[in-house]
Amino acid sequence: MSERVGYHVSYDDAGAVVIDDASSGVDLEPVTSDAPQDGTGCHSGTTMAQAARDAGQSEMMDQFAKDYPTGPHDKPQSMCPAFGSLRVGLRMKRVATILSGSACCVFGLTFVSHFYGARRSVGYVPFNSETLVTGKLFEDIREAVHDVADPEKLDAIVVTNLCVPTASGVPLRLLPDEIDGVRVVGIDVPGFGVPTHAEAKDVLAGAMLNYARREIEAGPVAMPASGTSDRPTVSLLGEMFPADPMMIGAMLAPLGLAAGPVVPCREWRELYAALDCSAVAAIHPFYTASVREFQAAGRPVIGSAPVGHDGTAAWLANIGDAFNIGKDRIAAAQNAFLPAIRGALAATPINGTITLSGYEGSELLVARLLIESGADVPYVGTACAKSSWSADDAAWLEAKGVKVKFRASLEDDCAAMEAIRPDLAIGTTPVVQKGKELGIPSLYFTNLISARPLMGPAGAGSLQEVVNAAIGNKDRMGRMRAFFEGVGAGDTAGVWERSPNLQPSFRAQNLKKLERQAKAAKASQMI
Fold it and tell me: Which of 177, 254, 292, 449 is most buried, by CB atoms within 10 Å?
């Protein structure tokens, strides 16, 4: 087995301290303001991006363009990207979050974070035109960070600039690195630079790994409460169903390896253990900034995941090669799990045509599982960009005749569904809505597919029941569509006692207004 490359992580004597879940953060009173807020944001596209460059943010924008290359659309088509980084911070113990952005953005982000189970408050530093222009906003942010920093309650504070402060060049890099032992991590997550909320998770995870790596280089760090493994570890990159890391650990055991922490981590000290690995498994392939930190620490990165029969066989072989493990031992590990996976796939086959799309980053993995379960999957769309860590999955799918679309737009996904007319459409909320309007059974990827185990034998049998049940609803969907036929759509949706009072002139007038604004924006860029 190969020796670990890169530097060694030294732990101090404070490793036995157990972090209490109750110490997850501090109560932050939101500050309200009647001051007018800037209404521009992520959907201002190139205007805001150019403003950020003019404010001295060119290096950051160039890095975003390199890490998260855009596709046919240059603005988010899912929820605000900052939700991804916000969620990562809110799920960590002893980490507080402070947002700086337009009031409407902060309200929406805090609302959706609580909808998804956040149990702590979010700090908010408001601004108006005067504080933005004069630099007072940065002073307000610095004051808020000093007010919140309490080493008894916190390990770190995450400060996030949303679109307008980022475009205005509010310099979070000038915040202190730490206050009384509380780390300060400042990030910019603008919608005009980060295309999806999945990739925004990488923005914060990468920033935290960078901070932790610099701490390791400076000297001994605190050992995680769980201690360290007596076997070489493989850190896991990407949020997964809770059972998946345990299943991966079971598959690694016959190779003499152990599963390390999952990044994004749940507490600060896990970052040290993640960097203390011998290799990294890029289960989700879009964590570009995080991969950069692991590579800077000298850790090799393996793509794809142990999904299905073929995926598990290839992944275990790649892991074994990375550790210079003998072929016989790799074959023994494969033989310990592949028969069970094959049996689970064959137990309840899927018979039907499925189109699949989403923005979580695991779409290609799910497609592999569906195909090995017997489904015909002619189209897979993912909002994430193509990367070397998803290359094996894409090649496997394309060899099966699948059209794989990276950085797919909503229009791409809907067009594929309408052209194929599958037995089941799996996708984002608007794709599901469109599918049901057409009478096609549809499932929301994030809540009904992504929130299930995918790895090993457990993953092999996890999708068939829900997918087969949904496909079986096709006749029911047809009856519902027939029942609601004729009630109108769009402006005329619903039941009307009289003909709806349409105003096509209003729409034409608004369209001309939008065209004038677009021409003015284009002219200003040419100056």
Answer: 449
